[in-house]
Amino acid sequence: MPPPLEEVANPARPSAAEEAQTVAATTNVGTLASLTRDGDPWASFVTYGLLDDSPVLCVSQMAEHGRNLAHDPRASIAIVAPNPPADPLASTRITLAGYVYRPEGDELAAAREAHLAAIPAAHVYIDFSDFSLWVLRVLRVQRIRRLRANGLRERRVLRRRHRGSGHPVRRPGDRITVSAGGRQCHRQFAAAYRSTNDQHRSRRSR
């Protein structure tokens, strides 16, 4: 097991990034937000698998959101932890935001396997010519967790900072802004949502 990336303040409580990973892994459905050609928001119920904590979508080009992703790769997916309490707003939920891309080569095969592992029924249509696999490159993570019944919630936002215009791209050394209760601190990208798998891959490559 790899050592902690930072000093653990409360070992009994997972970090915001770890909790977000757990929520994403405990279900296979979410609400995808995409943009139409006119710039209008469009929400769609979707299924997904996970490839190194990145959602893998299998989308038809005939679907509105399929056409949206092909036109503008910016997207986000809202995921709610299963088995909600009596108050749906008391459920832990996350939003993963970034941009989608079509995997190629070995990554395409791995993405296909990841989606089928989560959605076995997709074997019926996953190879149809009008369906495509999309991987969401996560640049920002928001986790919302209800702390008490009086409505107090804890919000933590992990935001990828990027420079330049156009669609954001992943760059070595990019930093994360973690917002919690109005306070901000900076962490290296390795400590964010994808950090655990990034570290495992680095250790395996040595």
Automatic annotation (TrEMBL):
Residues 18-142 form the Pyridoxamine 5'-phosphate oxidase N-terminal domain. InterPro entries: Pyridox_Oxase_N, Split_barrel_FMN-bd. Gene3D superfamilies: Electron Transport, Fmn-binding Protein, Chain A. Residues 159-170 have a biased composition (Basic residues). Residues 159-181 are annotated as: Disordered. It comes from the Bacteria. This is Pyridoxamine 5'-phosphate oxidase family protein. The lineage of its organism: Bacteria, Bacillati, Actinomycetota, Actinomycetes, Mycobacteriales.
